[in-house]
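#lab-general

N.A. 3:47 PM
ok so I finally got the sequence cleaned up, no stray characters, all 376 residues accounted for. can someone with queue access submit it? mine expired

B.Y. 3:52 PM
send it over

N.A. 3:53 PM
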Amino acid sequence: MKITKFFALLCATAAFAAGCETTTNEEPKPEPEPTPTTLEIKVNRERITIGDEVSFTVTLDGVDVTAAETLEIYETKNYTVVSNPYKPTELGKHEFYAMYGSLVTDKHAVVEVLPVMENIPDDPQPENTTFNHRILLIDHTGSGCGYCPQMMTVLRQLSEDDNYKTKYNEVSAHYGSLATYDNAKSDAAAIVGGNIGAYVEGFPAVTYNFLERTAIYDRNLNIVKREVDKLWNKDGAEAGITAAATLGANKVTVNYKVKSAKEQEYRVSVWLLESDIYSNQSGASADWQHYAQHAIRNITGYVGPNDLSGDSIGTIAVGETAPGTADLAIISTSWVPENMDVLVIVSAPSEKFNGKFEVVNTALCPVGGTVEYEYL
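B.Y. 4:20 PM
back already:
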C-alpha cells in the first residue's frame, strides 16, 4: 500500500482510541522514488510510404529486450497489439508504446505514413516554350439563384464546343445569401467572392482571371464566347504548367513546375475543386443542374484584399523551370476526394493592371493524377 494512504488509514483507526490529529491543509507526503529504469521504444523510420513496414527496437536501461517473450507493442489507436515489423494500413500519424512485464514506455514512438507521391511528368519537348493558353473562368452562383441554371446551360454548351473548350478552365464559386442551403458553398469560395466577386452585382455572373472587371450577367453563349476570345492569347501563354496531385491523410499535396516563355517573376496559387455536389437548385429544368461542378473547396495563395495571386516562385528565365508544392486541407468529411481536381493558377505582373499580378495560365489536374505541359 502506498505510504500516504497507509498513514491516513492508520490515523483514522487510531483517532477513535487515541485522538490522532490531522490537518486538512497538509500536503500529501511524496511517494518514494521508484527504482530508476528506462524502457524506451524506437522506430527504424519516422516517415514511411503507405505499404512500407516499420520496425521497432525496445531497450531497458540500454539493453535490447525486443525479442523478449513478455514484450508487447501497442498502437495507441484502439490500444491494439501490433506485430514487429508492422505495416500500417492508414495514412497519417501513428503512435506506439511497449509493455515489458509491468513496465510501460513513457514516451511514444511516432510514425507518419505518407501517400505514394505522384511523379510530375517528364517534359516531352524540353526546347519548346509555346504553351496553350487557358484563362480562368469563374461562375458566381448559388443553389438559391433561380436564373443560375440558365448560365449553367450556357457554360455547358461552351465546354462542348471544340473551338473553345481548350481556351479556359472553369470553376464555380458558391457563396453569399443565395448559397445558404448550398452544399457546394465553402469559406474559400467566399474569399474568392469577396475579392473577385466584389465587382459582381448579382447572380448569375461570370468573371475572368483575377483582375478583369467585366462581369457577364447575360445568359447568352455568344457573349461569353466574345469575352473568352478577347482574353485568350492565340500565340501562346507566358508560362506552361505541369503538376501531380496526391491524396494524403485529410489533404491533397500538389507538386508542380512552371516553365517560362517570358522572363519575369511568377506566382502560383492552387485551388481544390469538387464536382458532382448535389443541392436542390432553384430554377432547375434538368436533373444535371442540381449537381455543382468544379466548385471551389479550398485555396492557397490568398495574399490579402483583392490579391489572390499566390506564392512567388521567383524570376524564371525563358526555357527554364521552377518547382513548387502546395498542401490543401480536406476540411469536411462530406467532401468526396474521388470527385476532386486541383487548378494550378500562374500569374505574373501585368502592364494593363499597373504591375499587379494577373493570371497568365491555368492547368487542371485530377487528384491522384497528373497534367503535362500543354503545348500548342
